[in-house]
Amino acid sequence: MHMTRPKALIAWSSGKDSAWALYEARRSGDYDIVGALTTVNETFGRVAMHGVREALLMAQIEAAGLEPIIVHIPYPCTNEIYERAMAAAMDAAKARGITHMIFGDLFLEDIRAYREAKLKEIGITPVFPLWQRPTEALAREMIDGGIEAHLATVDLKKLPAGFAGKRFDQGLLDALPFGTDHCGENGEFHSFVSAGPMLSRRIGVTVGETVERDGFAYADLLPA
């Protein structure tokens, strides 16, 4: 008897962890992943936290073969507004028969517990395919596995601005200051994936200027 697989969304940041979580979840064959949910800052038209232009995001989600589910949030955005927007998106997903939500979280217990609590209220099950994988080995596995990415954002408290816009490759991993998580899981950096085994085609990207705002350096990645 052919079992129907549960329908899932992926929490899509445009970065390497969500991209690799998609890859791993697809390889497992456990879920029918139908859409990518991303928060976009409507003031700037960019992915929240990552600062990636919406045009690049849409090209990327299309290459991943997913339906874009965009949650627009204002800037600045209070936690209350964010939670309300996310709850509305999750309610709508549940109404469409979505039962699972896939995340690229690696080891931050408080963030995992927060996601679990919020989704429990709605009745959707969170899935964490990369949970507690050693991050240096994981970062190198991603690169060996064909991920091409650039650092879109760096936290200036943790990394020099010069890292913004750099390619996420073995050389970058070797150059990270001591104590920096190789996947940037402590918020050191965020990335944009332009190629990899989860995308049907490469997204052309050129690196524009770097802008510093609110303690972060954002490399403006442009569609090539």
Number of helices: 6
- Beta-strand percentage range: 25-35%
Oligomer: single chain
Q: Total domains, how many? A: 2
* Alpha carbon gap, first and last residue: 47 Å
Order of helices and strands: EHEEHEHEHEHEHEEE
Report on the biggest sheet.
Answer: 6 strands, mixed
Please state the CA-atom Rg, rounded to the nearest Å: 17 Å
> What is the CATH C level class of the largest domain, in words?
Alpha Beta
Write down the CATH topology of the largest domain.
Answer: Rossmann fold
Number of strands: 10
Chain-averaged pLDDT: 96
- Level-2 CATH architecture of the largest domain: 3-Layer(aba) Sandwich
**Low-confidence runs of at least 5 consecutive residues:** none
Shape, please?
Answer: globular
Layout of SSEs?
Blueprint: E1 7-11, H1 16-28, E2 32-41, E3 46-47, H2 54-63, E4 67-73, H3 79-95, E5 98-102, H4 109-122, E6 125-127, H5 135-144, E7 148-155, H6 170-175, E8 189-195, E9 205-213, E10 216-223
Parallel strand pairs: 1-2, 1-5, 2-4, 5-6
Antiparallel strand pairs: 2-3, 7-8, 7-10, 9-10
What does this structure look like?
This protein is α/β, with parallel strands linked by helices and 224 residues long. The chain folds into two domains: 121 residues, Rossmann fold, CATH 3.40.50.620; 89 residues, no CATH class. The longest helix has 17 residues. The model has no long low-confidence stretch (mean pLDDT 96).
What is this structure, in a nutshell?
The chain has 224 residues and is an alpha/beta fold. 31% of the residues lie in helices and 29% in strands.
